[in-house]
Amino acid sequence: MKESSFCSPKIGSVAAVTLSDTAAVLNAEEYASKPLSQGRTGFPKQSGQSLSYWLQQVRCDPLLDHRTTEHLPQQADTVIIGSGISGTLIAKHHLETWPGKSVVVLEAREFCSGATGRNAGHCKPNQWRHFAKFEKAYGREQAIKIMQNEATTWRALVAYVQEHNVDCDLWVGDTYDVPLDDDVAKVAKACFERYKALGGKVDHIRVTRDPAEAAKISRIKNAKACYAWKASTLQPWKLTAHIMRQNLKSGVNLQTHTQAKIVSVDPSGRRKWVVLTLRGEIACDTVVHATNAYSAALEPSLRGVITPKPHMCNKVVPPRTMSGSKALQNSYGVLLPDSGIFSINPRCTADGVIMFGGSNPGQKELDRWVEQHPENCINDGLSRVENVTECVREFVESNFECWKGAEMSPGEGFDYSWSGIIGLSADGVPFVGELPGKPGQWICAGHHGHGMARIFTAAPGLVKLMDGETWDATGLPQVYQMTPERLQSLQSPAGDAPTIAIV
């Protein structure tokens, strides 16, 4: 077995195993797609969770522990569980659709302290790279529609931020997908050309396949090609907070530090459902599950269908040799030889701190460790996991000319990392719709690590369904729809759910 050049030997105090080289597959069937421990789930950690960089920036914001009323309301028309971008946007569109209905948003911990407040800060619409895996799973039409929907989602997010002048560090510019070896470049080319031949929209993508030119454009020394199109980075907590503040002005009741434990039928018959929380009960007619990775803890039918998994994000302060006029000016998806990916957000319109997310070899070692210690599936208290950080360090020193050998003074370098919990859906796409057999309970969850590129259309789409409109009215790909048939297929041990990689 050949040792990976991107991996260090430890995960904290846990010994890691050596990674073997794997064939280039462009994230189509990467490690994270392999079967996970069936049924592992859990509620959000109530103590010891790490602080993301986004959450570190807002420690004095009273929205973190906001409770609109001192006591939990005894009843409401609608209860939304989860205050991330899904729950917050659903509340917004709910208010616009039914301004007279009462809405309570429950959050288990601080406001927006789950995946939205812990991601790497991208809204990057995939515009070709994942076409092959979705075509294989769902056919050409749906695969193209998924690509189109992500572009629509990105435009909707940018339009909202610009129209409302939201202070959330929005950057709009070229994102680069950069294959890092010849085999990956060949797979990338084949996928791109097939997508183009089958009718995919590619005229907005600039393709450079000469390695020397790709390296010049991307500033990544070992680049073999470069694919460029428009995307965004942002401070996701601040965007979500802006929307929630507008919701509060319109009458939403936000209850933080109020963990939902059980949803059951209202025994009194006055309402359909009762949501039991650690602070008491609230009766309602409509429940919206917007808890993403934690969905199966609250809804047993989703065990093995939505599975939590910790992912690391690294905050890196670049050296002076890559600061100022020499700072990175683009976001990246760096496609690694082992079928992993570095997601890079340089915050080039904000503070210049570089965020590294994605699935590098160190992350894969962490995945294996979690498989062996499944109680950590909801552990967002991880920090400074050296396996992951060492992979980032080796990448930047090998690929950024101005980084290797640069003097690192106090305050520069590999400053901090934290974990967030991804909600892996069993078939790789989110669930949007009514929970089968539970009229009045709805879900928008299972975003498979790619929620920012889906939720700005998925959330309003869900509210349209709640209002009795047809699926076609949502504009979403049909494969996102929660149906009894889809759920039953995924629940079955013999189910043939398509293998879909994490983003």
TrEMBL record:
SUPFAM superfamilies: FAD/NAD(P)-binding domain. Gene3D superfamilies: D-Amino Acid Oxidase, subunit A, domain 2, FAD/NAD(P)-binding domain. InterPro entries: FAD-dep_OxRdtase (IPR006076), FAD/NAD-bd_sf (IPR036188). GO terms for cellular component: cytoplasm. Residues 77-453 form the FAD dependent oxidoreductase domain. PANTHER family: FAD DEPENDENT OXIDOREDUCTASE DOMAIN-CONTAINING PROTEIN (PTHR13847:SF260), SARCOSINE DEHYDROGENASE-RELATED (PTHR13847). This is DAO-domain-containing protein.
